[in-house]
């Protein structure tokens, strides 16, 4: 009888501990970073591979993980991989902040998004 009680308690404790670890989000530094906040107009003039931070709205989906992003100075195409959304849902009225890298090809400029969050 005592063995059954001990085993039941051990299983319960293991289940609770496993659930607590499974529910935790990965942590990390929360504070200022070196990524420069710029407008779309400024981003369009930067060199290839420049790291930037933009705030504005996503106005439409262009397909193939590409979207049109807009702020008060203009718009540009951004590429947001499906895994970067992390469950975030936005509409054309939702202000977001994007962190990413400028990708210049011939006469086209895009932003390869590395992180997306709701704007603060």
TrEMBL record:
InterPro entries per UniProt: BOBF_sf, CarO-like
A Pfam family that the UniProt record links to this protein: BOF
The UniProt record lists the keyword ATP-binding: no
Signal peptide limits: 1-22
UniProtKB keywords: Signal
Keyword Nucleus listed: no
Entries under NCBIfam families matching the protein: stress_OB_fold
Name of this chain's protein: Uncharacterized protein
């Amino acid at each position: 009888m005592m063995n059954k009680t001990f085993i039941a308690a051990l299983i319960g404790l293991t289940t609770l501990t496993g659930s607590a670890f499974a529910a935790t989000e990965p942590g990390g530094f929360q504070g200022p970073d070196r990524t420069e906040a710029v407008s779309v107009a400024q981003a369009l003039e930067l060199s290839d591979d420049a790291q930037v931070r933009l705030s504005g709205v996503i106005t439409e989906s262009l397909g193939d993980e590409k979207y049109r992003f807009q702020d008060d100075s203009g718009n540009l195409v951004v590429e947001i991989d499906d895994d970067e959304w992390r469950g975030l849902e936005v509409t054309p009225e939702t202000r977001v902040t994007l962190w990413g890298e400028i990708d210049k090809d011939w006469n086209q400029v895009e932003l390869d998004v590395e992180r997306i969050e709701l704007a603060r």
